């Protein structure tokens, strides 16, 4: 079964009508990564032609509401969306380029971290974001610091 067919079934199983914009957004999300609305809108337009950014926002709202997608909002970054929702994973964010990568649960079981004081809360989930520099940006920075000219292929 193709990814598109699987997503068509996922939409139906969630009680949602299968529309081209919903199917295109969900298919793009299930490709992985953490796209912004603008990146998703561009990808959906490449698939379908004319689709408004508002339509993409509307689809994302429905997907988040039904638990088929979730948002992450790294500080200083645009809201991003992902289809990995069945676990309590965390994220690494590059301070230089904004790349976001998934990191499995810190201790192996949700909620992954136990607070020193729950203040009477029942903890269900933890959101952890580690900030740093991705390998590509670190390598680029090292090249610039050494003053070595970059090799441009092409």
Automatic annotation (TrEMBL):
SUPFAM superfamilies from the UniProt entry: Winged helix' DNA-binding domain
Main localization category: cytoplasm
Cell compartments where the protein resides: Cytoplasm
Pfam families associated with the record: FUR (PF01475)
Keyword annotations from UniProtKB, A to Z: Cytoplasm, DNA-binding, Iron, Metal-binding, Repressor, Transcription, Transcription regulation, Zinc
InterPro entries reported for this sequence: FUR, Fur_C, WH-like_DNA-bd_sf, WH_DNA-bd_sf
Superkingdom of source: Bacteria
Coiled-coil annotated spans: none
CDD domains xref list: Fur_like (cd07153)
Family: Belongs to the Fur family.
Protein name, entry field: Fur family transcriptional regulator FurA3
Source species: Cryptosporangium japonicum
UniProt lineage: Bacteria, Bacillati, Actinomycetota, Actinomycetes, Cryptosporangiales
